[in-house]
Automatic annotation (TrEMBL), chain A:
Keywords: ATP-binding, Ligase, Nucleotide-binding, Protein biosynthesis, Transferase. GO terms for molecular function: asparaginyl-tRNA synthase (glutamine-hydrolyzing) activity; ATP binding; glutaminyl-tRNA synthase (glutamine-hydrolyzing) activity; transferase activity. Pfam families: GatC. Allows the formation of correctly charged Asn-tRNA(Asn) or Gln-tRNA(Gln) through the transamidation of misacylated Asp-tRNA(Asn) or Glu-tRNA(Gln) in organisms which lack either or both of asparaginyl-tRNA or glutaminyl-tRNA synthetases. The reaction takes place in the presence of glutamine and ATP through an activated phospho-Asp-tRNA(Asn) or phospho-Glu-tRNA(Gln). It is an enzyme of class 6 (ligase). It comes from Lentzea aerocolonigenes. This is Aspartyl/glutamyl-tRNA(Asn/Gln) amidotransferase subunit C. Belongs to the GatC family. Coiled coil: none annotated.
Automatic annotation (TrEMBL), chain B:
InterPro entries: Amidase (IPR000120), Amidase_CS (IPR020556), Amidase_dom (IPR023631), AS_sf (IPR036928), GatA (IPR004412). It is an enzyme of class 6 (ligase). Pfam families: Amidase (PF01425). Heterotrimer of A, B and C subunits. Residues 26-474 form the Amidase domain. It comes from Lentzea albidocapillata subsp. violacea. The keyword Transferase applies. PROSITE patterns: AMIDASES. The active site is at residues 81, 156, 180. This is Glutamyl-tRNA(Gln) amidotransferase subunit A. Its EC number is 6.3.5.7. It catalyses: L-glutamyl-tRNA(Gln) + L-glutamine + ATP + H2O = L-glutaminyl-tRNA(Gln) + L-glutamate + ADP + phosphate + H(+). Keywords: ATP-binding, Ligase, Nucleotide-binding, Protein biosynthesis, Transferase. GO terms for molecular function: ATP binding; glutaminyl-tRNA synthase (glutamine-hydrolyzing) activity; transferase activity.
Length: 99, 494
């Protein structure tokens, strides 16, 4: 299996929305490499004829009656928000540059 | 009196409270005092809810006084792992990203405990997001094993198991994704049960790996664990993976087991879980347990489950993959920490800075491993292969259960290791879950019951008992019979 480079770790961190530090990149590159090489052994026995199992309990969609049940009110839903305004979650800008 | 109350089992306490011999307030206060006295050393609790606990105790006392029929564990105190949401009481999951968060709702397990009159003393320490085997990954500092304060109490539910061993509570709740109930039970000399997947609702259990996460009971005796199991188990429409089937009769099975007869019961010893990497004292304790089970009448033979050798690598692909997806919800927008929002940064930048500041190293490692395993080009080799191994493990269990009623092994290869010993070596840490992971991957029930102390270091050892799905009662029967035959093995001095 290919070893994982520092650049690849930086890419993974970006995908995972983790603003990792330079020191962490060094640490994680080494550790992820050891872990991935170790877990790659699953390929030794996972032959093409074996069906995958995603879940221990075979499930299909679970349906229920469409009835109104008590749920969180607006105040409760916003109670843990880092910032709220006018009964809504207040978030930083989502567009790249301000118009 | 106080001493008697903290040493008593939950079943004994319930009988005394319900007969009016002692009040729940007295019992609760005795445990709160014990926590105040010992938790500076142990650090089992992240939050103690003195007021809430005493209020619940008073309600039970009033009901008993009024002659009302109360539920079997009403008035008995319990330590709740900080992974379960509690309305109005902080829930951190051992992470800085949820520091100060007060959930607006109760987990189903929390609700069932409250409705049953169980007194929740507080929230227990854990590895951050339940990722770990030592509780060293808690953002709030490690928990210490009451048997030896320099050693780990297991993980991720080290706080719950340490609280039991330290006599801070007679009951606790844990969650088990790869062994987080059983391995802490093993290294603290307490009982820990992972029920059949879907047996206990996951609603309000802060998700780590949803196809594996399962809440379960922790106690100092098998009967106490069974009593708690029946309180928290059962179908819940709030969890789409909840099993809509009757709760296995675990209390009846535990009582039956106490009679001490296992005649005709077929027990398989998993041959994969021995040899290199296993501590001699652990293996000797296991052999002694096998002899005792034989004396109780069980028929014991070896059974080979070859795919179990691949359970650990499969788990460390599946669990991180699911976690990388589950933990995406910690986006600094709706609850929890928000870092770096100075008016100039974008949402994406704030998310990245928040997650960097809020997650610890093990959580970051697993998120990145999962992100890698699920990325195109690697998906088939890693996540896809791990899912196939999962199929093989399920098949090995099925074959073994054709010949045997239950399977046994040591719960974990070693006794509690020293705090710091494996902190910088993730693979060494992961090996603590070697024997416990197959049951999570197959969704089958498994438990750890103490098999006494290792003769080389005097630390507790656990016997793991595994049963087929929805046959949880089988392992309770075996565990109760074994427990009675084993007898007392002392306790830590604090």
């Amino acid at each position: 299996m290919p070893s994982i480079s520092r650049d690849e770790v930086a890419h993974l961190a970006k995908l995972a929305r983790l603003a990792v530090t330079e020191d962490e990149l060094d640490l994680f590159a080494g550790q992820l490499d050891v872990i991935l090489q170790s877990v790659a052994s699953v390929g030794d026995i996972a032959t093409a004829d074996i069906p995958p199992t995603s879940h221990a309990v075979p499930l299909t969609n679970v349906f229920r009656e469409d009835v109104v049940r008590p749920s969180l009110g607006q105040q409760q839903a916003l109670s843990g928000a880092p910032e709220a305004e006018d009964g809504r979650f207040r978030v930083p800008r989502i567009l790249g540059e301000e118009a | 009196m106080t001493n008697d109350l903290i040493h008593a089992t939950a079943a004994e306490l319930a009988a005394k409270i319900h007969s009016g011999e002692v009040s729940s307030v007295e019992v609760t206060q005795a445990h709160l005092d014990r926590i105040a006295e010992t938790d500076g050393k142990v650090h089992a609790f992240l939050h103690v809810d003195t007021e809430g606990a005493l209020a619940q105790a008073r309600r039970v006392d009033e009901a008993v006084k009024a002659g009302e029929q109360v539920s079997p564990l009403a008035g008995v105190p319990l330590a709740l792992k900080d992974v379960m949401t509690t309305e109005g009481v902080p829930t951190t999951v051992g992470s800085k990203i949820l520091e100060g968060w007060i959930p607006p709702y109760d987990a189903t397990v929390t609700r069932k405990l409250k409705e049953a009159g169980v007194v929740i003393l507080g929230k227990t320490n854990m590895d951050e997001f339940a990722m770990g085997s030592s509780t060293e990954n808690s953002a709030y500092g490690p928990t210490h094993n009451p048997w030896d304060l320099d050693r780990i109490p297991g993980g991720s539910g080290g706080g719950s198991s340490a609280a039991l061993a330290a006599l801070q509570a007679p009951l606790a709740i844990g969650t088990d994704t790869g062994g987080s109930i059983r391995q802490p039970g093993s290294v603290t000399g307490t009982v820990g049960v992972k029920p059949t997947y879907g047996g206990v609702s996951r609603y309000g259990l802060v998700a780590f790996s949803s196809s594996l996460d399962q809440a379960g009971p922790c106690a100092r005796t098998v009967l106490d664990a069974a009593l708690l199991h029946e309180v928290i188990a059962g179908y819940d429409h709030m969890d789409s993976t909840s099993i809509n089937a009757p709760v296995p009769p675990v209390v009846a099975a535990a009582r039956e087991g106490l009679s001490g007869d296992l005649s005709g019961l077929r027990i398989g010893v998993v041959t994969q879980f021995t040899g290199e990497g296993y501590q001699q004292g652990v293996l000797r304790s296991f052999e002694a347990a096998v002899s005792q089970l034989k004396e109780l009448g069980a028929e014991i033979a070896d059974v080979s489950c070859p795919s179990f050798d691949y359970a650990l690598p499969a788990y460390y692909l599946i669990a991180p993959s699911e976690c990388s997806s589950n933990l995406a919800r910690f986006d600094a927008m709706r609850y929890g920490l928000r870092v770096g929002d100075d008016g100039t940064r974008s949402t994406e930048e704030v998310m990245s800075l928040t997650r960097e500041a809020g997650f610890g190293p093990e959580v970051k490692r697993r998120i990145m491993i999962g992100t890698y395993a699920l990325s195109s080009g690697y998906y088939d080799a890693y996540y896809g292969s791990a899912q196939k191994v999962r199929t093989l493990i399920t098949q090995d269990f099925a074959k073994a259960f054709e010949k045997f009623d239950v399977l046994i092994s040591p719960t974990t290869p070693t006794t509690a290791f020293k705090i710091g010993e494996r902190a910088n070596d993730p693979m060494a840490m992961y090996k603590a879950d070697l024997c416990t992971i197959p049951a999570n991957l197959a969704g089958t029930p498994a438990m750890s019951v103490p098999s006494g102390l290792s003769d080389e270091d005097g630390m507790p050892v656990g016997l793991q008992i595994m049963a087929p799905a929805l046959q949880d009662h089988r392992m309770y029967r075996v565990a109760a019979a074994y427990e009675a035959a084993r007898g007392a093995f002392g306790g830590p001095s604090l």
